[in-house]
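The material for today's practical consists of a large collection of protein records. There is nothing in a record beyond a sequence line and a structure line. Backbone structure tokens are a discrete shorthand for how the chain folds in space. Nothing more is needed to start thinking about how sequence determines fold. As an example, a complete record with its sequence and its structure tokens follows.
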Amino acid sequence: MTTRLLFLVLALVPAACHAAPEQKQEVSQVARAPEAVTLRALDGVVLHGLFHAAPRPKATILLFHQAGSNKSEYATIAPRLAEAGYSALAIDQRSGGELFGARNATVDGVGKSSGYGDAIPDLEATIAWAKAKGSPVILWGSSYSSALVFPVAAKHDAEVAAILAFSPGEYIDGVSIKGAAAKLRAPVFVTSAKDDEEIAAAKAIFDASPSADKTQFVPKSSGVHGSSTLIAARNANGAEENWAAVLAFLARVAP
């Protein structure tokens, strides 16, 4: 090999060494892109969701929206959970609408929004889907769905590792949320807006739970209804305070 050729070969080596990290970064970004998911409830209703996968998930969190809403309620929340190491699936329940600027694809498929309690099969279908992921399953509800997670978790207590309920209350006709909470031993996190009625409603459910690991978080600075309390655009002064409490709970129950 001539001296000139050897010089050219050595000059190319550093460039080749720098190419690999760029390729890895591109692959990592693709892996983090959310995945559209369709599920089928036991009664045949097709559910539409969006899955944010964490590279090495500590748990799979199932995100359920509030009344008149859809999976877009979690457009900023689910990616942050994935960054913290928790895979997250947000679904469109059959009881919902167009809050957060998007349509509810499940409601569109059914033809109209159903009652709150009618969404129970939707939550159960997501648990069955999440079990196949092999990591602990955590239920997360907002407003009416923060009530639904209690009877659903009570029915599937061996499959649910923890519950987070944002602004829970006795919203479901014919179902006692306190009664369901009394049957649960899984870790529980409840929170609410900084509102006396909401705080009291959450406390009644919280007090009914016999769990040895339970937290009622009452925001000090601010807070809004449901999971929106974690969205800076809706809770500019209090979102980070709420996030700190949520992430501390998750780190404890699914480290």
Q: What stands out?
A: The longest strand covers residues 46-52. The beta strands are 35-40, 46-52, 59-64, 86-92, 137-142, 162-166, 188-191, 214-217. The CA atoms of residues 61 and 138 lie 5 Å apart. DSSP finds eight helices and eight strands in the chain.
